[in-house]
Amino acid sequence: MAIIxxxxxxxxxxxxxxxxxxxxxxxxxxxxxxxxFAEVRNWVQRQEIDVLFxxxxxxxxxxxxxxxxxxxxxxxxxxxxxxxxxxxRDVAPAKGHLGLAHHVGxxxxxxxxxxxxxxxxxxxxxxxxxxxxLGDERGVWGGTIVPLxxxxxxxxxxxxxxxxxxxxxxxxxxxxxxxNLRVAIVATGGLSHQVHGERAGFVNEAWDQExxxxxxxxxxxxxxMRLAEYVVxxxxxxxxxxxxxxMRGALSEKVNMVHCATYAPSVTNIATVVFEDTGDQLTKxxxxxYTAHVGHELAGADTLEGTYPFTLAQSQKNFRIxxxxxxxxxxxxxxxxxxxxxxxxxxRYLTAEExxxxxxxxxxxxxxxxxxxxxxxxxxxxxxxxxxxxYAAFRGxxxxxxxxxxxxxxxxxVAGKGRVEALDH
Length: 425
Prior knowledge:
This protein is α/β, with parallel strands linked by helices. It has 2 domains: about 5-295, 3-Layer(aba) Sandwich (Protocatechuate 4,5-dioxygenase, Chain B); about 320-425, Protocatechuate 4,5-dioxygenase, Chain A (Orthogonal Bundle), CATH 1.10.700.10. The chain is built from 20 helices and 10 strands. The radius of gyration is 25 Å and the shape is elongated. The N and C termini lie far apart (about 60 Å). The mean pLDDT is about 95.
């Protein structure tokens, strides 16, 4: 079974990535940043950590206000660095742990957290600032990650108590994962800072020290604080430290602090902290009961003949082809799909198999593979096929045979403008 070895708290200021990329290791003004992360890096290496569960907030890079979620879990196998305005950092993509990510996602939803899931999105300094510091002169850190993005930049946001409760569920989720993995929970962000308005540059080192003491010894005091208290004490953006309560909730009641350092050179107090877990693993009976709880809602649906549940694993495996077909909502893509398919497919790295499925209108084969019906519906509208024709193909029937099973033999589609009239026959 997977075990939680401990927790890491680390600031994610772009200052950190800047220091790394401009080789400030030997500059006295910057060296304390490297010293703190060296302790974290050494602990990760000593403990032979396999997976870092990275809790962070994106800085309106890959997540924007057109669709802003409270908790979004990454379910991908790799994550490239984001372009935050001046080009992406020259760091290697991070490797994702698919199995653990998909398991954690199912567990958190079963525990009534309304999760969002993401893939195909690059990571900004919320993850990359601390993660890039875990490599050494031999190269990047060699483990895998599972990223959890917390939406803390558009109010209302989850409160401290909700974050702590999610951490409690996260502990069960990780400990019930069947693979033997050594996992560390990484909380990023903070400490005190504010980067907007007339209060920009606010730092409160006394609060930062109090926060670090409380999160080790009395996290319940932090859990019961209102967001406004975090803002007053640590700055508006510094209130992101509520994300650290997800990490603390996932750890045992008693922890051993093996490292703690802060450094406040400019507009934020940069911190690194390491806690070692002292709690017990779930028993075999507890794992079995929790696994049954997680699978309860869907139990039996996967055995229904002709039914193909669209799971996180199916979504990740087929993300490329689903994205290609989803983009038919864009007129330019739609036009090239019809007139220049082979070149378009090559540009989007579709495999020969994927091209054959689409060009051959192999509707049921695509469903069985893991293509969502709701992108096939868009494809059908583009190529002039009505929904009932697709349903008939799924069932291995002619259109007339399918229509004979309906109360009314009607054609319809999601097509718009001129195409909808052509399908009305």
